[in-house]
Amino acid sequence: MTESGTSTPPLPHAVRIAGTGSYLPERIMTNQDLERLVETSDEWITSRTGIRERRIAREDEFTSHMASEAARAALAQAGITGSDIDLIIVATITPDTLTPATACYVQQQIGALKAVAFDVSAACSGFLYAMELARHSVGAGAFRNALIIGAEKLSAFVDWSDRNTCVLFGDGAGAAVLVPSTNGGGRILSSQLGTDGAQAELLNIPGGGSACPVGALGAAGTAEKSATLTMQGREVFKHAVNAMRKAAAEGIAAAGLTIQDIDLLIPHQANLRIIDAIVERLDFSREDVFINLDKYGNTSAAAVAIALDEAHREGRIQRGDRILLVAFGAGLTWASAVIEW
Ligand code: UT7
C-alpha cells in the first residue's frame, strides 16, 4: 500500500458534532431469504461475516430520501432546521443520478435552501472524508453549520445472482451536524485520510460511467463490464485490516492520545472478522467496540454514520468520551477520526 495518508494542521476554531441521526428502510432481508436467492447458507454468512440481516429500500425510495430522513433526525437533535445549514456534503457511491449530486436533492427535501451542496465519492470511507472537509470548512470560518451524510442504496447496484457479494450489502443512511465548538464543548481532535488508487480494481462498479457507458453494456452486460458491484474479497480483506489498523493508530497519535484513552471504537461495519483482527492488532478491549453489522450488513458510506448515531442514542457515548471512528473502502480509501464528545 502506498503512503498517501494525510494529517491536518490545527484550525482557527474547534468543531463539534451537535446532532446525529440515521434512517434504515423498513424491509428486512434475512440470511434465510438469501438462501432462496443464491446457493448460500445462514451458517456461511454468519460465520464468515457476522451478518444476520440487512435492510432493503423500496423501489421508489432513493438514496436522497434516506439521506434526508437521517438529516432530519440529526437536525432535530441539534435543535436547528434546514434553513440554518450552510453546507451539505453527502457521501455516497449510489447516488440518485450521476448528476446532479444527491446532496442537491437533499437540499430541497429538507428546505436547506441557502446551503452549498455536493457529494463525495470515497466509498466506505466517504462519511469520514465528508467529516474532514466539513471540519475544515467550519473550523476555518467559511461555513457555520454543516450537515454531513453517508447514504447508500446498494441494493440497486448489487448483482443478486452473485453470492460472493449480494450477501454482504444493505441500504441506509446516517447524518451528523457540525458546528463551531465554543465554551470548551466537545470537538473533533484529529483526522487521517488516505488513498491508494493502484488498488482501484479490487472493488468497483466497472460499468455505467464514461469508461463504459450504460448504452455500451448491452442487455445483460458482462462480468468485466457490468453496472454492478464486483470485489476480490480476500485481497480487500487483507488491505482493510492493515489500512484501518494504521489509520486508527495514526489518528490516535495525531490527537496526542494513546489507545487506552479511547472509550469507544466505531469501525466500518463490513465484516466481524475484520473488526476482530483490528481490535486484536490495536490491543483494544472488544467490549468497547460498537457493532451493528449483524442487523444492517455493509452499508458503505452510511455504516460509520449509522453506527455513530446508534451508539449515541443508546447512551454508549457520554460527554467527555473519546471516540475513534475508522473506515476503509473502494479506491482504495481509508480514514479515521478521533472525537472528544
Ligand atoms: O466495505 C468495503 C470493504 N469490503 C470488505 O471489507 C470485504 C472484505 N472481504 C470479506 O469480508 C471476505 O473476503 C468475504 C466475506 C467477502 C469472503 O470471505 P472469505 O473468507 O474471504 O471467503 P472466500 O472469498 O475466500 O471464499 C471461500 C469459499 C469459496 O469457495 P471455494 O472456492 O473455497 O470452494 C467461495 O466460493 O466460500 C465460497 N463462498 C460462499 N459460500 C456460500 C463465497 N460466498 C459464499 C456465500 N455462501 N455467500
Question: Sheet bearing the most strands, described?
Answer: 5 strands, mixed
* Unreliable runs: none
> What count of structural domains?
2
- At the fourth CATH level, what is the homologous superfamily of the largest domain? Thiolase/Chalcone synthase
Strand order in space, largest sheet: 1-9-14-13-12
Helix content: 25-40%
CATH-derived architecture of the largest domain = 3-Layer(aba) Sandwich
SS field, number of helical segments: 10
How far the N terminus sits from the C terminus, by CA atoms, comes to: 32 Å
Query: Which range does the strand content fall in?
Result: 15-25%
Give a quick precis of the structure:
By secondary structure, the protein is an alpha+beta fold. The protein has ten helices and 14 strands. The strands form four sheets. It has a five-stranded mixed beta sheet, with helices on both faces. Strands 2-8-7-5-6 form a five-stranded mixed beta sheet, with helices on both faces.
Secondary-structure map:
Blueprint: E1 6-7, E2 15-23, E3 27-30, H1 31-35, H2 42-49, E4 53-56, H3 63-78, E5 87-91, H4 102-109, E6 116-120, H5 126-139, E7 146-153, H6 163-166, E8 171-180, E9 187-195, E10 203-204, E11 230-231, H7 233-254, E12 264-267, H8 272-282, H9 293-296, H10 301-313, E13 322-329, E14 333-340
Parallel strand pairs: 5-6, 5-7, 12-13
Antiparallel strand pairs: 1-9, 2-8, 3-4, 7-8, 9-14, 10-11, 13-14
Helix pairs in contact: 3-4, 7-8
The protein binds oxa(dethia)-CoA.
